[in-house]
Design brief:
Layout: H1 24-32, H2 43-56, H3 64-78, H4 92-112, H5 123-133, H6 142-148, H7 152-166, H8 171-174, H9 182-195, H10 205-215, H11 231-245, H12 250-262, H13 265-277, H14 282-313, H15 318-344
Helix pairs in contact: 1-3, 2-4, 3-4, 3-11, 5-14, 6-13, 7-10, 7-11, 9-14, 10-14, 11-12, 11-15, 12-14, 12-15, 13-14
Amino acid sequence: MGINDLSPGGSTTTAPARFGPRGPISAALLDLLPRPVEEAVDLPALGHRVDAALAATPDILHDDDLQLSLFLLYGLNYGSVVQADDAWEWNPELIAIRGAIERVFEAALRERVPAVPLPPANREAVAEALFDLTKPSTGPSLSKYVARQATDEQLHELVIQRSVYTLKEADPHSWGIPRLNGRAKAAMMEIQADEYGGGNAERMHSGIYAGLMRLLGLDATYGAYVDHVPAITLTSLNMSSMFGLNRRLRGAMCGHLAAFEMTSSIPCRFYGNGFRRLGYGADVTWYYDEHVEADAVHEQIAGRDLAGSLAEDEPELLADIFFGANACLTVDGWAGDHILESWEAGRSSLRVALPAAERTSA
C-alpha cells in the first residue's frame, strides 16, 4: 500500500498524509498507520530498526527521519495529522517505539540546552529570573529582519515555517492541564482560554492563523507544508508535545510555555510591521496584532501564576521549569537562526521549494 492510499475498514481520523517519508522509519510508519491495527505485522522488527536508527544518528535534534517519525507518533494523539486507525493511539508497541525515541530526544535536549542559575523557589524570584532569561536581545534577529527588509516571498516562507506549530497553537501545552493542580492549573486555564478564543471559535488563534494563510494564497490544511520545513521546525513542535504529554515533564512544559509567552509580544509587533511595510492590511496582520496585546498579559500570568506558583507548590520541579524555558529559547532560536541565515545568504529557508504560484500573495 502506498503512503497516500486509503485502507478499507478501521476507524480513521483524517485525510491521507500530504507529505512523504524522510527515511526508512517514517516510511514504515506512513505505510503502517492507515492500516487497521488487526493487520499490523512486524512491529517488533520496526522497533529494532528504530533502535538501530537511534544508535546511528549523529544528532537526533536535526535528524529528518526520526523527527518526522516522532511527529507522526504524536499525531496519533492530536489527530488531523495523518489518516490512522484510532486504535493505533494506545497501541503498546507503538508507545514503546515512541518512548525509545523520546528517551534519546530528551537526553539530547538536556545535553545541548545550557543550564541556567536557579532562583529561590518562590513566585516573585522565579518570575524575575524568567523575565531576565527571556529579555530581548539587542543584536540581529529574525523578527527585526522581517520588519525591515524581508521580501514578500520570505514572508510566505515564514508563515509556512510557523504553520506546523501555529495551526495547532496551544494544543501541546493543553496536554499539561490535567497534570497540574491548584494555582498553576488555574493560571494555565486563563492563558489557554485566550488561546482558544475565549469560547469564540472565530477568535481561536489557530483559526486566525489559518485565515492569514488563506489570505496569502497558502493552503491552511494541516500538514500541507510538512514536506517543506526542515527537521528543526519539527523538533520545536515535538519538544513541546513531549513536555505536554509526559506528566514527569510538567515542570518543563510550564517553563516552556512561560518562555514562549514572554518572547511573543515584541517579535509579533515586528512581524506585523513587516507585513504592513509591504502593503498588507489589518486582515493579514490580525494574528500578529492579537498577540502583541494578548501575550503582554500572558507573560505576567505565565511567569508568576503558572511557573512561579508551580515552583512554590512543587519546588522539586524548579530545575525542570528552567530547563523547559531555556529549551524553548534554544531550540526556537536554532529554528529562527536557520531561517535568518538562509535569507541573508540569498537562499530559501525551506527544505523543499515553494511552488511558484504560492511564493507571493494571490
